[in-house]
Write a structure and sequence with these properties.
82% of the residues lie in helices and 0% in strands. With 190 residues, the chain is mainly α. 7% of the residues are buried. The model has no long low-confidence stretch (mean pLDDT 81).
Amino acid sequence: MKRDNLDKLFDSIKEDLDYEMPNLGHQGRFLEKLQMQNQNQSAPLAQTRMKRSYWRSALAIAASIIVGLGLFTVFMQNPQPKDLASVSPELSETQMFFTAAIEQELATLKSERSPETEKLIDDALKQMEILEKKYEALKIDLTKSGDDKRVIYAMISNFQSRIDLLNDVLENIEQVKQLKQEYNENKLTI
């Protein structure tokens, strides 16, 4: 049944079909035309791709420049905080003195760690962290104020407060040691 329908279809268009063989070299000419057509179409495509790559490169360079300028402006607006050493040579020596003294006292404090002094030392270290944060804020204030003497005085006072705190804690540790020694002596004599 299907075969009959196909035969009828071909019989009806038989006159329109071309049964002749193509001329000699037809396939070669056809392939040449096809290649020419492909070359004509690929040339504008290649040019379009090149234009796109130039634009992408230009946009990438422009974006890099914008990011660089942005970072430069941010860093110029937010300079690094100054400390005492950046104000004058005398204050630099003062800062070095206080820093060395604080480091020495901290080392002494940490060497005194025992079960009896654990709480005292931990509390002292927390207080030292608070004073250090305040000092960092003072450094920012010094940068913004343009070497204001009040800020410099507050920074020196902060150093002195840290040393006083460490000395007080070391004195308390000595008292704890004495009380422990007295307790042990009383325990032995009784």
